[in-house]
Amino acid sequence: MVVGFPMLNFASFRVFADSSQKYSARALKVVEVSLVIDMLAPLKIDFRPEAFANPLTAAEIDAFQSIGTGGPEVREETLAFLAGWQGFVGRNADLFCVVDKAADLDAAKVARKCAVIMGIQNSDHFRKPEDVKSFFQLGQRSSQLTYNSQNFIGTGGTDRIDGGVSDFGASIIAAMNETGMLVDVSHCGDKTTLDAIEISSVPIAVTHSNCRALNNHPRLKTDEAIQKLATKGGIMGITGVRNFVSAVEPTTVENIVDHIDHVVNLVGIEHVGVGSDSDLNGYDDMAADQKEELLAMYKASYAFRERLDTDGFDHPRKIFDLTEALIRRGYSDSNIQAVLGGNFRRLLGETWTGVATPADKGRPS
Predict the structure, then answer these.
(1) Residue 138: which CATH number?
(2) What is the CA radius of gyration of the chain?
(3) Strands 62-67 and 96-98
(4) Residue 97, Cα to own-chain centre: how many angstroms?
(5) Counting CB atoms within 10 angstroms of each CB, which of 98, 193, 220, 261 has the fewest?
(6) Lowest mean pLDDT among 93-97, 171-175, 181-185, 218-222
(7) CB of 244 within 8 A of CB of 282?
(8) pLDDT of 115-133, one tens digit each?
């Protein structure tokens, strides 16, 4: 009699020379075959010139390069950001490639490069609906409607009163839908978030937030918002910023998976992904003066603690730690692949073209 057993991954391996951390054969394989898409992953938080003296290394497959903008020089700042970072990617073409269309993500995976999506965490640079197409032609593929405060489009997540999406904001969303630019509401207030989901004719994203049901923080999303987002086909990226993950200690990668679990249980596996909101090394490795300057930009309601990064999700190999945590929770390989990037790949394929191509329509999540 032949008895068959499920594959059991008892072995673990040390695969990175600069770390003693070991990972299971299963986790290594899942990451290897996955198209990993982190929907908010700046290439480098430290912008000092000397920070780029050493070569950068690609963290798996996708870095979503994005910054928060605002103020009287927002248009010039946004243009400089797009030009500067696309130039940097071009000069380091052995590691990176700029994403124009969703198929570029697949090509980057084959070429073992880091695909860089250009996004902006505000839409103040859109002075009229026609600007959306202009910035799309310059390479921008995603735009967050507001940052933390009110603008002409809508209300930010830390404002006291949320008036929702304005008439001008509705025209910007319509232009984004027509052009094929992804609408992001990660930093939007509750009413602005719900309005944007309703107004948009195509699915939108929360690229980097968490579940308020698990952590009562104003920057996080309500169950109502998550449900409406999913009903329209949208996806929520879970972030690893410590104060968004948990209000109490310890705060570990297991708490990040709690938020993934919550979205899965609420609306299904096909509506959750990753938006770490961090570079490879995290905020706690920033120069002290830069970190102090960064924290001073935010309201007290952000409730930052001494550490900003979540334990086990604060280093260049964090996607492997997340994968191990998902394995411990009982997720199948196909569902882990969906979380790591398959879901966002599907959304981007549907959104950037306005209408999904036949290949995108048939792509599993």
Answers:
(1) 3.20.20.140
(2) 20
(3) unpaired
(4) 18
(5) 261
(6) 93-97
(7) no
(8) 999 999 999 999 999 999 9
